[in-house]
Amino acid sequence: MERFDIAIVGGGMAGASLAAAIGNKARVLVLEREEQPGYHSTGRSAAFWTESYGGPGVQPLTTASGPILQRLGMLRPRGALTIGTGAQVEAVEAFAARYAALGIDVRLLGRDAVAALVPGLRPSWTCGALEPSCSDIDVSGLHQHYLAVLRAYGTQVWCRAALEHAERAPEGWSLTLGDGRKAGCSVLVNAAGAWADTVARIAGVLPLGIAPLRRTVAQLRVAPAAPAGLPLVLDVAERFYFKPEAGRIWLSPHDETPSAPCDAAPEEVDVATAIARLETVVDWRVERIEHRWAGLRSFAPDRLPVYGFDVAEAGFFWFAGQGGFGIQTAPAAADLAARLLLGEGPGAVEPKPYDPARLVRMSEV
Ligand SMILES: Cc1cc2nc3c(=O)[nH]c(=O)nc-3n(C[C@H](O)[C@H](O)[C@H](O)COP(=O)(O)OP(=O)(O)OC[C@H]3O[C@@H](n4cnc5c(N)ncnc54)[C@H](O)[C@@H]3O)c2cc1C
User: Fold this and answer.
1) Residue 98 and residue 351: Cα distance in Å, rounded?
2) Which residues contact 357 (CB under 8 A, 6 or more apart)?
3) What is the pLDDT of residue 42?
4) 8 Å CB contact between 298 and 321
């Protein structure tokens, strides 16, 4: 049986970025159940980097990741515009104040400036908060970059490798995969996205209540065609967002439907809801739904990610709960987790807020 220092369950953005950050400082194995890493949430994102997205608790990870993503050539300027109606002026002002206080460049705009950025804007939308720093992320490029880096270090990625059993052994863990393969490791890392609680149960560790929520996106052909320079447009009440993509629109109803961990698929009703909401914002004609997809965004009960050793099981490390921000935070999150795993001092982001110890155990509720 081959032995490793660290086995990471999950080869999505979380597992790949962490394995790359550990590099050759430990002998690492990445286990991925699918034929290819990136099939689940990582392959379904809306591909933006926005410092306000995910809330103030996530912002330090997003902000610290920005310059790294920039250096890697993974960002393209987009701008984000959070809009409100006449009844939502205070909400937009509060949004701008909350993030300006964190040092983010957020500019309040009146109706004319918002309408200049969003052609065809309906009259009820009167205010907005512009974040010029928001960028599109090359998600696939970033994931492939991490996979190339980890392979260059000699890290093994086993695909079609579903972890089914994890038993405590004297020197760590004895792992058994669905096809009978076995491996041993000292530390088991849970980077299993929507399956984070499932993997905890496999290892006999108490789950933390990490809940997968479905999110839907539709690619639409609209008339007139959306300008390439359109910002990411978000509703201050979180009922939609849309952005241009190669002459089309990517539109989401901002849905958060509880789901079992699965290969998520879009529901017609969510696509219809998204379009109905878009029609309240702009006067564009929706000519065709070209493509639709859904993915799972997985959240801990307090909606902050969970990075660190389990409280009761010292050989089990959580790298989960990346919600809707697992791409934009990947570089800083991977650095933070690699430092914890390797016993190195803290880096750019303070790890304490993300420590699993903060969460009330489901069994204690
Ligand atoms: C519609 C949508 C839009 C989004 N938009 C953005 C965005 O604009 N910006 C942003 O930053 N984030 C966004 N996100 C969130 C982002 O996609 C996720 O946070 C991120 O992909 C999570 O990565 P992950 O590696 O944890 O999960 P995943 O990519 O799901 O990877 C987990 C992997 O673990 C594997 N696995 C599970 N159990 C086992 C097992 N027992 N054995 C072996 N392997 C196992 C799975 O097969 C899977 O490949 C979006 C998500 C969705 C769904």
Assistant:
1) 22
2) 308, 311
3) 98
4) yes
Q: Over the stretch 141-183, which tens digit does the pLDDT of each residue have? A: 999 999 999 999 999 999 999 999 999 998 999 999 999 999 9
By the 8 A CB rule, do 223 and 285 touch? yes
Let me know: does 166 contact 205? Beta carbons within 8 Å. no
User: Residue type at 253?
Assistant: P
8 Å CB contact between 217 and 275: no
Q: Where are the alpha helices (DSSP H) in the chain?
A: 13-22, 59-71, 89-100, 111-117, 139-152, 196-202, 268-279, 330-342
> According to the model, what pLDDT value does residue 362 have?
45
Give the closest residue (by CA) to ligand 1 atom 6.
Answer: 45
Among 52, 291, 298, 327, say which to mutate for ligand 1: greatest number of ligand atoms within 8 Å of CB.
Answer: 327
| Separation of alpha carbons 203 and 215, rounded Å | 28
Q: What is the pTM of this model?
A: 0.97
